[in-house]
Amino acid sequence: MTVQRLTLVIAAHNEALALPRLHPRLRAVLDGLHGIDGRVLYVDDGSSDATWAVMQALADADPSVGVLRLSRNFGKEAALTAGLDFVDSGAVMILDADGQDPPELIPEFVALWQQGYDNVYGTRLARDGESWLKRSTAAAFYRVIGRLSKTPIPADTGDFRLLSPRALQALGQLRERHRFMKGLFGWVGFRRKALPYRRHARLVGQSKFGLWKLWNFALEGITGFSTAPLRVTTYLGLLTASVAFVFAVWVVAKAALYGDRVAGWPTMMAAILFLGGVQLIALGLIGEYLGRLYDESKQRPLYLVDTWQAPFVADSSVHPIGGEQRDDHGTTAVGRQVP
Hints:
With about 350 residues, the protein is of the alpha/beta class. It is about 45% helix and about 15% strand.
């Protein structure tokens, strides 16, 4: 019987209390999978608490666990990318470190993968432990970006998913600096399948994503996978110019037919402030896209690695494409990048 490899990739930032509760559940699920070589890869995204020490302890106690520590906090998207880069073979399963994605559903993901699906993603039917405001804004965001983007981005779907080896390999070729992983997962295509589930509340602590971070995350997604905001700005400019032209014709006609008194100060100020606001919004949108081009032009690596400890059951030839040579308990200087 052919044994297939499955690596669980979990990026964490300040989750020292959640990981000891999550890992036994992962271990129990992996032990119950027949014909699957199950492994776990934890990524420490520059945590300031004891997360790295907890990860090392888990790796020392479980030979199927690998741990990766980034040089600083690069953000969840970059940390997730680093974890995926360090998976050398087989499929990957992505979960959040806070336990909101139930590991007990992994066998269902694996079953769909074995049926031939390349991207099996969990679609949230409910979001326990989250406020009404967060749930409603998240729902609105997914529906807005679904309409604006040509890339298929499923609604109410996060990072909880299984990627086949060929989907993982394709994803590894996408190296943009501003990473909206939910869009990148959809961009690679292949056979996709949704798996509805109920998202649980966090095991401990509170979410690291406040409304301001979620707002910036939404901007990343929309500007990364759609030029619709620029087009809307163009249409708004045309509409404003058309209204201004009609108003100018009316002013000239009124002055020619009835004469004109010195008046209209409130109207003039309202028009100036309106046009000024439209121009500033347009400049801000253009600046957002130009800023992305600027970041891409610098060609900096996506992340830097402090320490990499491979699973003891793994061979010692685990190297991301384009990465530097290192041994299983060594360090590497740069993340993967493609010319």
